[in-house]
Amino acid sequence: MREALIGDFLIDETSPVFIVAEIGINHNGDLDLAKQLIEVAAKAGANAVKFQKRNPEVCVPDAQKSLVRQTPWGSMSYLEYRNRMEFDASQYQVLQSQAKSLGLQFFASPWDVDSLNFLLELKHSVIKVASACLTDDDLLSAIRNSGAAAILSTGMSEIPQISRAVSLLSNNDLVVCHATSTYPCSPEELNLRVIPFLKEKYQVPVGYSGHEVGLVTSVAAVALGAKLIERHITLDRSMWGSDQSASIEPSGFERLVRYIRTVEKSLGDGRKKLYDSEIPHMLKLRRFQ
Predict the structure, then answer these.
(1) Pairing with 266, which of 62, 88, 106, 260 sits 20 to 30 Å away (CA)?
(2) Where would I find the H helices in 123-268?
């Protein structure tokens, strides 16, 4: 399996699980809320925080731009709403600085080439490819040409589409993440056995981007070989926003990190051995030595 350098974190067969707190759009365009969520991630022991970046003029279909949407800030067009959710360069710099001061890596998923260029100007060396963008050849080619490390989510995709995206990004440090893009996702559709399949097929580190309710299935992903775990976080799952219900609140995220660290310790090296701690019990209990 190839290794992948994600920022300053090397992911390989023996590395600890790289844990990403997906803030995404759960900040609702509020800088103070975004800063609180970064603090939540750091307190829990995550390795990184991730945001989403869009140019609404490009990403919002023309037919939807003028549609009226009810929001916590009143009625507005969908385009106005999408613009309200975006942070500018100065705000990103504030968030990046905070994350760095707390020992967290900071990156984002651009939904268009303009947003990729925005992130590259801010010296992002890691780019997350959202599942929705897996078939955007222009974006993938621009990421390849940038030389940035790539984390590729594979929700809403079949193997030929994934293989094409992997091929386009094959020269970059690359992690492929299994995902099912349903929010929240039922256990029956998580299909975690895809994780070892992706690892065998593409010979790169494989992660898991989860959108389910609960923690146990994300921990199971680690046992199946995921070297990166990404989950959405929120201060309160009842908050307004499309991703809140599939997110984890602070106490739950702390438990998730703790469970992952325990499970990765328990996996061992796969070689059956006699531990020194077993010898007294062996001498006491076994009739034939």
Answers:
(1) 106
(2) 137-146, 159-168, 194-202, 216-223, 250-267
The CATH number given to whatever domain includes residue 42 is 3.20.20.70
**Structure token digits, residue 62:** 């023309």
Number of domains in the chain: 1
Evaluate whether 229 touches 222 at the Cβ level (below 8 Å): yes
- Measure the CA–CA gap between 196 and 175, rounded to whole angstroms: 13
Contact assessment for residue 18 and residue 47, using Cβ atoms and an 8 Å cutoff: yes
Q: Is the dihedral of CA 55, 145, 206, 259 positive or negative?
A: negative
Quick count: other Cβ atoms within 10 Å of Cβ 236?
Answer: 11
Range of the domain at 109: 4-285
Query: What is the signed CA dihedral for 179, 182, 188, 189, rounded to 10 degrees?
Result: -40
Structure tokens at 221: 């992903």
Task: Give the pair of three-digit tokens for residue 268.
Answer: 């061992």
Please report, in tens digits, the pLDDT of each residue of the chain (289 residues total).
Answer: 899 999 999 999 999 999 999 999 999 999 999 999 999 999 999 999 999 999 999 999 999 999 999 998 899 999 999 999 999 999 999 999 999 999 999 999 999 999 999 999 999 999 999 999 999 999 999 999 999 999 999 999 999 999 999 999 999 999 999 999 999 999 999 999 999 999 999 999 999 999 999 999 999 999 999 999 999 999 999 998 888 888 999 999 999 999 999 999 999 999 999 999 999 999 999 998 7
pTM score > 0.85 for this model?
A: yes
Sign of the C-alpha dihedral, residues 209, 204, 124, 97?
positive
